[in-house]
Amino acid sequence: MLTHAGYIYSLDIPTWNPGQAAVGLGDSNIKIWNFMDNSGLSGQRHNFYESRILWKGLQGQILKVRWHPTRENILAYSTEYGRVGVYDTSSNKCHQFKTYYNTKGSISISWASDIQIGETFVRDAIISCGPNNIAYAFDVKQPTAKAVNVTDWIRQVNPAWSTIMEAKVKTSRCCAAVDPQSRFLALGNTDGAVEVYRLDTFRIVYVANSQQTAVKVLSWRDGSTLLAVGYNSGTITIHNIAEQLYDAPEVPIPNTTPMHTITEHKKRITGLAWSHHQERSLLASTANDEFAYVFDIQNGSAVSCFDQHLSNVLSVCWSAEDMDTLFTGGEDKFCYVWKYTDYPYTTQKRGASGPKLNELMSSLKRSSNICRQPQLLRHCIHLAARIYGGDINEAVKVVKNRIPGDIDQAEYEYAVYAEQELGGDTQDEQDEDSKNLGLFFDDKNAMRELIGIEGKIHIEEPAAVADSYDGRLLLDIIQSNYKAFESSPVNWVALALSPMAGKETWLSLMETQAKHLVKQSQPVLAATCFLACSKIYDAIRVYREAAMYREAIALAKLRLPEEDPIISTLFAEWADRLQKKATQEELAAMW
Length: 591
Fold this sequence. Notes:
Blueprint lengths: L7 E5 L7 E6 L4 E5 L16 E4 L7 E6 L6 E6 L4 E5 L4 E4 L11 E4 L3 E3 L2 E3 L3 E4 L5 E4 L9 E2 H8 L1 H8 L6 E6 L5 E6 L4 E5 L5 E5 L6 E6 L5 E6 L4 E5 L19 E3 L6 E6 L7 E6 L4 E5 L4 E6 L6 E6 L6 E6 L4 E5 L14 H8 L11 H15 L4 H8 L9 H13 L10 H9 L3 H17 L1 H6 L15 H5 L1 H9 L5 H17 L3 H10 L3 H10 L3 H11 L5 H17 L2 H7 L1
Antiparallel strand pairs: 1-2, 2-3, 3-4, 5-6, 6-7, 7-8, 9-12, 10-11, 12-13, 13-14, 15-16, 16-17, 17-18, 19-20, 20-21, 21-22, 23-24, 24-25, 25-26, 27-28, 28-29
Helix pairs in contact: 1-2, 4-5, 4-6, 4-17, 11-12, 12-13, 13-14, 14-15, 15-16, 16-17
């Protein structure tokens, strides 16, 4: 999906609407993403990116979102400020519970059915647990009523066990999870202990202490007694509590040997999600190591590893329609949709192909506006090789019969001979500018590297950049003409103050300012304003109309899916423009 304005802390897809996802963001918003049309209407093409923003009544980062399991359009959420609430997405009404946690941190939330806690009957309960050792049960029907303290009730029902837990001075309960059938409540502790209670009696039935680091995530498998636990160390343990459901002693003996212990992740676990497969038990996990894994719990082995995120991966959920598809989001502000079968597990992770790619890109040599024919051929051979799997010989076989008639066959043979005999480089010096040009035509990661190079140039050589910046390293807002600020200062002041009037007002003024900047021939600033509004296609259109194809392509590669047709359209338009200017090196790369 398109990039977001904040980190993607949480994702959830309801079973009653498998084409809709709730996205908890770090900019005080919840995005309702309708990625699939479930209306049943035919003849109209559905917009994959169709979404709307919920912001009224929300403050702080939205760390958790959970759809109600049966009631449509009811969404529970928790924030970084310890607030728990419910959003009715159909009426756009936000109900925030009166009781809240007075410490900042991640608040876990889980839906439960109607439950009896002492003399209090809680309907459509939401059970939460925060970093201050308190678990609450909220009544959705009475948001202004005081929440029930679940921790106190557990202490009354399990006095012997509570005495043992209270003796641990530096230990506190920090997360909770209710199984989908509302039978069990699992509580995680900061010392690694896991407690499981029956929801009908709140008696303890299972305890595990196989790890000594804080529990960060708990996840139940639907329709079973399997519990996945993610720890601060990156370890994941799988527990089957079926054998201890009945006749549990008043003080259970802690289990130190879980069903499986998984150690693929090396940093804190941030998300766990069980798949909807009936024939297989698959568990997806995310962590602060930039990877998402899928494990087969039958043998505890990894079957898939997704490595496209560029920062910590914070959330994961499975598609309710296509059971092989997952959604992951993270600090790179991207939400990826991918099939675990397309990313089979291998011990060779991202970055292993870097040297080979760098060797390929280093053959791109600096040239004048008119390249020598052998050099131009060499560019084309390398680009063709990348299309056909990286093998130059294979690429030669494919393109050999497509040589234009005006190209000398002898020069073509010379170019191929030079690549094969001299390792793809007929000159002694390696030119960094040509490598940068190659990065521009590479994937999204290479584009980020290119922007990093430009930023480094601004820091190390500000004077040189001010005098003459490299035309191949654009996206340079600093080089923009800031006269627009001087011509309409009132607009910028109003724009700066507009968030006080609400997000809709700010978005409207930002879009108006962008259109004003387009009329003033300020495409870079105009595109920046459109980007702030998450109007990616409008920003690309501004660059495109200004014939700033490098910026348009770079933006499209960074913010749109690789298969978006606008990318190839931009390359084709740029090629036509370069053909008129005879810049053959870049033209060869276009085609």
